[in-house]
Amino acid sequence: MNIKTNFFKICIVGDFGVGKSTLLHHYLERRFVSDVQSTIGSNFFVKHIKIPNVSNLITLQIWDLAGQDHFKWVRQAFYKGAKGMVFVFDLAREETFNHLSSWLEEVEGTIGYVPRILVGNKVDLVNPSERVILQQDCIDFAHQIKARSYEETSAKSGIGVDNIFYNLTLEMNKKYRR
Ligand code: GTP
Ligand code: MG
Fold this sequence. Notes:
CATH architecture: 3-Layer(aba) Sandwich
Bound molecules: guanosine-5'-triphosphate, magnesium ion
Order of helices and strands: EHEEHEHHEHEH
CATH topology: Rossmann fold
Strand order of the largest sheet: 2-3-1-4-5-6
Shape: globular
Number of helices: 6
Strand content: 15-25%
Helix content: 25-40%
Structural class: alpha/beta
Number of domains: 1
CATH superfamily: P-loop containing nucleotide triphosphate hydrolases
C-alpha cells in the first residue's frame, strides 16, 4: 500500500545561543523576537508549506531542542521519527561551527542519516571582510555531511530563513513520498 505522507517531523539543533528559537519565531511570525528565553527541554511548532508539483499542503512539525549540554538525554528522545534535521551554528562564534561534528554524532547515533540543511545564522553580525568562518569551509562541510544546502541566515532581518524549510521540505519530499 502506498501511503502519501503530508506530514514531516523536523528537529532543529546546534549549540545554545546560536539562534534556533529566534529563527523559528521569524519563520512563523515574520518578525525578530529579541527576548526569546533559552529553551528548556523542547518546544514544537507547526507550519504548513506548499512546494511545486505537490497539490496538498505539507505539514511540518518542527521540534526546537535546547542546545545546552545537560539537555542531551532529553534531546535524544525527540530525534525518533524525525525525517529532517536543521543543524545551526553562529557565524560570529567559531566554536559553534567546530562543535557541529558532535551534533552530527549525537543525531546519527540515534536515527542515522536523514535529510538535512546546514545553517550559519547571525550573518548580520559578520563583516564580510573579517569573516573568521569562511563561506567556502561552510559549503565544503555541508557537502561532507550530505546536506541539501548551506544557508546563511539572520533571525534579525529574516534573510535566508524561508530557504531552510523550503529546501528541507523539497529534500524530504523527494526521499519519502511515493
Ligand atoms: P538555546 O535555546 O539555549 O539552545 O538557544 P537558541 O539557539 O534557541 O538561541 P536563541 O534563539 O535563544 O538566541 C540567542 C540569542 O541570539 C538571543 O539574544 C537572540 O536575540 C540572538 N539572535 C538569534 N539570532 C540572531 C541573529 O540572526 N542576529 C542577531 N544579531 N542576533 C540573533
Ligand atoms: Mg532555544
